[in-house]
Amino acid sequence: LTRLIHAGYDLLDLQTYFTVGPKEARAWTIRRGWTAPKAAGVIHGDFEKGFIRAETIAFADFVASGGEAGAKEAGKMRAEGKEYIVQDGDVLHFRFNV
Questions:
Q1: Rounded to whole angstroms, how far apart are CA atoms 70 and 45?
Q2: Which H or E run contains 3?
Q3: CB 48 within 8 A of CB 92
């Protein structure tokens, strides 16, 4: 089943990014090559319209650091702007203002 899902994602040119919070972690599916604002729009249109930046942690760094707090402490979180191309597995926290 896992191989089938991966093959489908590859065939359709899809990837996943994650959002995490105190109550919920969620995976979001987007097309490969999308910018951070466009990926934010999958959550809510206002996120895309008022996009300021995406606080970004690579998935491997997130896991190796034991979560968001550990990744911040280790200096693995970075701020990315409107031109950032979301990478498969990124853990993102969007900053926006509308």
A1: 30
A2: helix 2-12
A3: no
Report pLDDT for 19. Answer: 98
Rounded average pLDDT over 30-47: 98
**DSSP 3-state of 33:** coil
> Domains in the chain, please, with CATH?
14-96 (3.10.20.30)
What are phi and psi for residue 59, nearest 5 degrees? Answer: -55, -45
CA pair distance 2, 80, nearest whole angstrom: 31
- Compute how many other C-beta atoms are within 10 angstroms of the C-beta atom of residue 27: 9
Cα 17 from Cα 8, distance rounded (Å)? 16
pLDDT of amino acid 74: 97
Across the chain, what does the average pLDDT equal? 97
Q: pLDDT at position 52, please?
A: 98
User: Rounded to two decimals, what is the model's pTM?
Assistant: 0.91
Cα–Cα dist 2/75, whole Å: 32
